[in-house]
Amino acid sequence: MLRVITVRHRGAYRLELHGMLGGEWVPLLEKHWRAIVDGGGESAKVTVVLSNVDFIDSDGERLLQRMADAGVRFVVSGCMNRYVVDKLQPSAGATTKGVRP
Protein backbone atom coordinates (compact mmCIF):
# COMPACT_ATOMS: atom_id res chain seq x y z
CA MET A 1 0.00 0.00 0.00
CA LEU A 2 1.12 3.55 -0.69
CA ARG A 3 -0.27 6.65 0.95
CA VAL A 4 0.48 10.01 -0.66
CA ILE A 5 -0.07 13.21 1.27
CA THR A 6 -0.01 16.17 -1.10
CA VAL A 7 0.64 19.62 0.27
CA ARG A 8 0.40 22.62 -2.02
CA HIS A 9 1.89 25.98 -1.13
CA ARG A 10 1.66 28.52 -3.93
CA GLY A 11 3.35 26.89 -6.94
CA ALA A 12 5.19 24.25 -4.91
CA TYR A 13 3.98 20.74 -4.16
CA ARG A 14 5.25 18.35 -1.52
CA LEU A 15 4.37 14.69 -1.96
CA GLU A 16 4.92 12.77 1.26
CA LEU A 17 5.00 9.04 0.52
CA HIS A 18 4.21 6.42 3.15
CA GLY A 19 4.50 2.69 2.57
CA MET A 20 5.62 0.80 -0.52
CA LEU A 21 6.64 2.33 -3.85
CA GLY A 22 6.16 -0.69 -6.05
CA GLY A 23 3.71 -2.78 -8.03
CA GLU A 24 0.35 -1.24 -8.77
CA TRP A 25 1.21 1.90 -6.79
CA VAL A 26 3.88 3.10 -9.22
CA PRO A 27 1.53 4.00 -12.11
CA LEU A 28 -0.90 5.63 -9.69
CA LEU A 29 1.84 7.84 -8.26
CA GLU A 30 3.05 8.69 -11.76
CA LYS A 31 -0.48 9.67 -12.81
CA HIS A 32 -0.82 11.88 -9.71
CA TRP A 33 2.57 13.53 -10.29
CA ARG A 34 1.87 14.14 -13.99
CA ALA A 35 -1.52 15.68 -13.16
CA ILE A 36 0.25 18.13 -10.84
CA VAL A 37 2.85 19.02 -13.48
CA ASP A 38 0.24 19.29 -16.25
CA GLY A 39 -1.97 21.47 -14.04
CA GLY A 40 0.83 23.71 -12.80
CA GLY A 41 2.86 23.88 -15.97
CA GLU A 42 6.63 23.97 -16.04
CA SER A 43 6.62 26.30 -13.05
CA ALA A 44 5.26 23.64 -10.67
CA LYS A 45 8.03 22.72 -8.23
CA VAL A 46 7.67 19.23 -6.78
CA THR A 47 9.43 17.72 -3.78
CA VAL A 48 8.99 14.03 -2.98
CA VAL A 49 9.56 12.92 0.60
CA LEU A 50 10.67 9.29 0.79
CA SER A 51 11.40 9.24 4.53
CA ASN A 52 8.47 6.92 5.30
CA VAL A 53 8.87 4.56 2.34
CA ASP A 54 9.91 1.08 3.39
CA PHE A 55 10.27 -0.59 -0.03
CA ILE A 56 11.03 0.56 -3.59
CA ASP A 57 10.95 -1.93 -6.46
CA SER A 58 12.60 -1.53 -9.88
CA ASP A 59 9.50 0.13 -11.38
CA GLY A 60 9.52 2.58 -8.48
CA GLU A 61 13.19 3.32 -9.10
CA ARG A 62 12.50 3.99 -12.79
CA LEU A 63 9.68 6.38 -11.84
CA LEU A 64 11.97 8.21 -9.43
CA GLN A 65 14.52 8.53 -12.26
CA ARG A 66 11.88 10.06 -14.56
CA MET A 67 10.90 12.42 -11.77
CA ALA A 68 14.54 13.39 -11.16
CA ASP A 69 15.00 13.99 -14.89
CA ALA A 70 12.02 16.36 -14.74
CA GLY A 71 13.55 18.35 -11.86
CA VAL A 72 11.77 16.81 -8.87
CA ARG A 73 13.66 17.20 -5.60
CA PHE A 74 13.83 14.42 -3.02
CA VAL A 75 13.98 14.36 0.75
CA VAL A 76 15.23 11.04 2.08
CA SER A 77 16.25 9.32 5.26
CA GLY A 78 17.40 5.80 5.90
CA CYS A 79 20.07 3.78 4.15
CA MET A 80 17.82 2.16 1.53
CA ASN A 81 16.12 5.36 0.43
CA ARG A 82 19.41 7.23 0.34
CA TYR A 83 20.97 4.46 -1.77
CA VAL A 84 18.12 4.56 -4.29
CA VAL A 85 18.20 8.35 -4.64
CA ASP A 86 22.00 8.41 -4.82
CA LYS A 87 21.79 6.14 -7.88
CA LEU A 88 19.69 8.74 -9.69
CA GLN A 89 21.27 11.33 -11.94
CA PRO A 90 23.27 13.96 -10.03
CA SER A 91 20.72 16.57 -11.08
CA ALA A 92 18.17 14.91 -8.79
CA GLY A 93 18.59 17.62 -6.15
CA ALA A 94 18.35 15.14 -3.29
CA THR A 95 18.35 16.32 0.26
CA THR A 96 19.28 13.87 2.98
CA LYS A 97 17.73 14.50 6.31
CA GLY A 98 17.60 12.59 9.54
CA VAL A 99 20.05 9.94 8.41
CA ARG A 100 21.83 8.14 11.21
CA PRO A 101 25.05 6.17 10.83
Describe the structure concisely for a colleague.
The chain is of the alpha/beta class and 101 residues long. Helix content is 36%, strand content 37%.
Topology, pairings included?
Blueprint: E1 2-9, E2 12-21, H1 25-40, E3 45-56, H2 58-69, E4 73-76, H3 79-86, E5 94-96
Parallel strand pairs: 2-3, 3-4, 4-5
Antiparallel strand pairs: 1-2
Descriptive notes:
It is a single chain. The protein is an alpha/beta fold and 101 residues long. The protein has one domain: 2-Layer Sandwich (Transcription Regulator spoIIAA). The chain is built from 3 helices and 5 strands. The chain has helices at 25-40, 58-69, 79-86, and strands spanning 2-9, 12-21, 45-56, 73-76, 94-96. The chain has a 5-stranded mixed β-sheet, covered by helices on one side. Strand 3 (45-56), helix 2 and strand 4 (73-76) form a beta-alpha-beta unit. The chain is globular.
- The percentage helix is 25-40%
Tally of individual helices: 3
Overall number of structural domains: 1
Q: Strand sequence of the main sheet, in spatial order?
A: 1-2-3-4-5
Shape: globular
Gyration radius from CA atoms, angstroms: 12 Å
